[in-house]
């Protein structure tokens, strides 16, 4: 019987014995599968990070119609699409299941019903094809995707801002993270989605197929952010945590007030949607940037970042927002950090980032399972070691920075 966790070398040996493809090329090949939220994704990568084939089914349009993700609907859509998506990724790569070195799948954190579909499919797949299994932490995968595209050494600072998460962490290794701050209520993307919904942006002709964050970014380009003033959250708390619920409240109140003034029914478009979008986007950007600024200063004060080329990596769906990226650039320029954001398609959920995390783990022989019966999904899973209270105790005051962005 094979040991429970195989080392990278063992896996290689297994492949050489059992797969002509790998014997022929010497490459290690990983199939990555993602179903943690509302994207069914799969991709086949080689161990250099070359994407051999990928496929993605987005549930975005369905969830836009229902006004948010209904977990049972997400589960049904994953179930309906997973087979086709995995088959497409394999077909496009020209790789047979027998040639794969391992299968990597998101098992945490995420929606229980969605995670369950990916894990169940993967367990059957690896059993059928007798492949090792690599369980993946979704946020670790977001944090490390950048290494597929740039040679970024550990340690580096990472900001993850998506629909489900807003966090700052120090990446020290592929499975070693220090959590510096996280959202105390809702995530940045969720807030933008809810504001977009409250503004009925899906009925705006230019926004019908866009996610909330994308719609806000698009409309904000022509809006006047000074037309509304929303208070940046947590100004008196000198930590790196985030909070967006209060902002959401402020924006909702402003919308209700405007609806009354303009005699507009709830559900109809206000004349000032672009201004509200611009002011909301700016406040989200400003909050994210201030917490990131403090995280940079904290890491510097503790000697946690390298002297040479210290780097801030930004990922997650919200990281595809150009305005937020440009605001972050002001802070990294002021603090001497190098800012890296993967292209948008790698910031949002996909199978490629999961396969890449599998490649990283395979190379280091970490977390590779020969049996999957005991692997369970975990809807809640912290990222790394939580040092948020140490950051809070340091109470670092950030110097004022002019966040002037031309949209
Ligand atoms: O990482 P992701 O694809 O899924 C998870 O939440 O894990 O992120 C999706 C989130 C949504 O809330 C969406 O509104 C937001 O990312 N988003 C954006 C943009 N594109 C996607 N937010 C702001 N600006 C964008 N361009
Ligand atoms: Zn994500």
TrEMBL record:
Classification via InterPro entries? ATPase_NBD (IPR043129), Gcp-like_dom (IPR000905), KAE1/TsaD (IPR017861), TsaD (IPR022450)
Location of this chain's protein in the cell = Mitochondrion
Q: Which GO terms describe its cellular component?
A: mitochondrion
Superkingdom of the organism of origin: Eukaryota
What's the main place this protein lives? Answer: mitochondrion
Protein family membership: Belongs to the KAE1 / TsaD family.
Instruction: Give the function comment from the record.
Output: Required for the formation of a threonylcarbamoyl group on adenosine at position 37 (t(6)A37) in mitochondrial tRNAs that read codons beginning with adenine. Probably involved in the transfer of the threonylcarbamoyl moiety of threonylcarbamoyl-AMP (TC-AMP) to the N6 group of A37. Involved in mitochondrial genome maintenance.
Protein name as it appears in the record: N(6)-L-threonylcarbamoyladenine synthase
Gene expressing this chain: osgepl1
């Amino acid at each position: 019987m094979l040991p429970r966790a195989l080392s990278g070398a063992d896996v290689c040996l297994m492949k050489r014995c059992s797969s002509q493809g790998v014997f022929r090329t010497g490459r290690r090949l990983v199939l990555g599968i993602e179903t943690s939220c509302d994207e069914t994704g799969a991709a086949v990568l080689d161990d250099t990070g070359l994407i051999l084939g990928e496929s993605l089914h987005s549930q975005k349009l369905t969830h836009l119609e229902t006004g948010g993700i209904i977990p049972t609907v997400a589960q049904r859509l994953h179930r309906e699409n997973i087979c086709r998506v995995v088959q497409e990724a394999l077909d496009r790569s020209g790789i047979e299941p027998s040639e794969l070195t391992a299968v990597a799948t998101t098992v945490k954190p995420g929606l229980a019903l969605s995670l369950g579909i990916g894990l169940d499919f993967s367990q059957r797949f690896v059993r059928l094809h007798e492949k090792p299994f690599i369980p993946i932490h979704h946020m670790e995968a977001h944090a490390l995707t950048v290494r597929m595209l740039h040679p970024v050494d550990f340690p580096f600072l990472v900001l993850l801002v998506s629909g489900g998460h807003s966090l700052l962490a120090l990446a020290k290794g592929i499975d070693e993270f220090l959590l510096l701050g996280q959202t105390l209520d809702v995530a940045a993307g969720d807030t933008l989605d809810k504001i977009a919904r409250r503004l009925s942006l899906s009925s705006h002709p230019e926004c019908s197929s866009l996610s909330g964050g994308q719609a806000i970014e698009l409309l904000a380009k022509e809006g006047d952010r000074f037309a509304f003033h929303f208070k940046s959250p947590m100004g008196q708390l000198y930590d790196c945590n985030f909070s967006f619920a209060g902002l959401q409240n402020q924006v909702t109140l402003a919308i209700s007030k405007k609806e009354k003034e303009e005699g507009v029914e709830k559900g109809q478009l206000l004349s000032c949607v672009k201004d509200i979008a611009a002011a909301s986007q700016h406040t989200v950007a400003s909050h994210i940037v201030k917490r990131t600024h403090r995280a940079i200063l904290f890491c510097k004060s503790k000697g946690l970042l390298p002297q040479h080329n210290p780097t801030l990596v930004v990922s997650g769906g919200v990281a595809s927002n150009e305005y937020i990226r440009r605001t972050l650039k002001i802070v990294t320029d002021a603090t001497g950090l190098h800012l890296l954001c993967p292209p948008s398609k790698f910031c949002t959920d996909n199978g490629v980032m999961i396969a890449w995390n599998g490649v990283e783990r395979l190379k280091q022989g970490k977390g590779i399972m020969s049996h999957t019966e005991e692997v369970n999904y975990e809807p809640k899973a912290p990222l790394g070691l939580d040092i948020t209270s140490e950051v809070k105790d340091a109470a670092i005051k950030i110097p004022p920075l002019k966040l002037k962005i031309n949209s």
